[in-house]
Amino acid sequence: MQERGFGFPRFKKFGQYRSFVFPQFKSNPVNGFEIKLPKIGAVSINLHRPIPEGFEVKQVRVVFKASGWYAQLILQMDVSVPETTPHGKPIGIDLGLENFLAISTGGLVERPRFFVDLQSQQRLLQRKLRNKKKGSANYRKTSAKVRKLHEHIHNIRREFHFLTAHKLCDNAGMIFAEDLNLKMTSRGILAKHCLDAAWGSFLEILKWVCWKRGVYFAKVAPNGTSQTCPHCGAHTGKKELSERVHHCEECGYVTDRDVAAAQVVMQRGLVFVADGQSVILPVEEGCVDTPMKQEKPTARKGSPRSTRHW
Questions:
Q1: β 108-109/174-178 pair status
Q2: Contact 223, 180 (CB under 8 A)
Q3: pLDDT at site 233
Q4: 75 phi and psi, to 5 degrees?
Q5: For 6-32, what is each residue's pLDDT tens digit?
Q6: Which residues pair with 135 in a beta bridge?
Q7: What residues contact residue 284 under an 8 Å CB cut-off, 6+ apart?
Q8: What is the pTM of this model?
């Protein structure tokens, strides 16, 4: 078997798989507040919202979580989705641990400690679980409490990400962020705090919210954003982590370190979307709030997309 590349079969322990997929359906399996699954039959569901007219159910994934069973419906409809073009007010964001993010306009968003605040409660539950006999009724009850705590942390973190993404889209037509190496941030002495902030999940959510609300989103190179003055473009050198204020010796510009990095990200984003168009960058005018001047390009048609309902 090893010569064929399959390897040895592994032992399938209890609770290893928490989901299964029904890959295709000939007709709509949802009927009112019931869903008809092959070889299972009709199952009562709490339908969060009706299926939009014209969409077809292509796949159903049944997932088991600590709070119960869920059916994820994957819908499809052949539509042409236009690409979001650069328009409106641009802003740049800089993600960090001192503050969750800094905005180029000067705003700072405080970072909630989702996992760190509940770590003592999780430690107590896992200590109780360690003293239970594996497989017993008390072991399963305590294990369920641990799973519910992790799901609660995931839910409050995800809600914070969505609320923050919508607030950013309220006052911007273009949002630019750094293209971070998230694998490197998950290592080292600050790994727990970086994973708790979940920058990768936030950027994916922000990208989806921007697409849904018609806001242009792009990522720029992260190299040297904290070592460049957004006012004059001078190189200020590497800063220590304890140095939280940006002070340029060339022009005397003083601001928060993360806000300065966000302003540099915004300027790089303007250069990225310029692409031969007439653009006035903030550094050229000596003011970080200088609006971008460009002609509105025509909308382009994209490929058909599938819409997912949870």
A1: unpaired
A2: no
A3: 80
A4: -105, 160
A5: 777 888 888 788 899 999 888 889 988
A6: none
A7: 290
A8: 0.80
Q: Please state, as a whole number, how many other Cβ atoms lie within 10 Å of the Cβ of residue 10.
A: 7
Q: How far apart are CA 249 and CA 234, in angstroms?
A: 9
Long-range CB contacts (within 8 A, 24+) of 107-110: 108/256, 108/258, 108/259, 109/164
Residue given tokens 């200590």 in the structure block: 127
The pLDDT score that the predictor gives to residue 217 is 94
Dihedral pair phi/psi, residue 107, rounded to 5°: -80, 150
Question: Residue 135 CB: number of other CB atoms within 10 A?
Answer: 8
Which residue is listed with tokens 């954003």? 225
pLDDT band for position 82 (cuts 50, 70, 90): confident
What is the rounded distance in angstroms from the CA atom of residue 124 to the CA atom of residue 37?
40
Instruction: Round to whole Å and give the CA distance between 260 and 109.
Output: 15
Residue 56, CA distances (Å) to 25, 73, 82, 192, 307 in order: 9, 10, 21, 42, 10
CA 151 to chain centre: 17
The structure tokens listed for 197 are: 């902030």
d(CA 36, CA 41): 5
Q: Which of 105, 101, 115 is nearest to 153 (CA)?
A: 115
Amino acid type, 38: P
Which residues are within 8 A (CB) of 253 and not within 5 positions of it... i.e. 6 or more apart? Answer: 229, 230, 231, 232, 246, 247, 260
Kindly report the CA angle at 268 between 265 and 273, in degrees rounded to 5?
A: 125
Domain range annotation of the chain: 19-76, 90-301
Beta bridge pairs of residue 109: 101
Q: Is the Cβ–Cβ distance between 227 and 236 less than 8 Å? A: yes
Three-state secondary-structure class, residue 64: strand
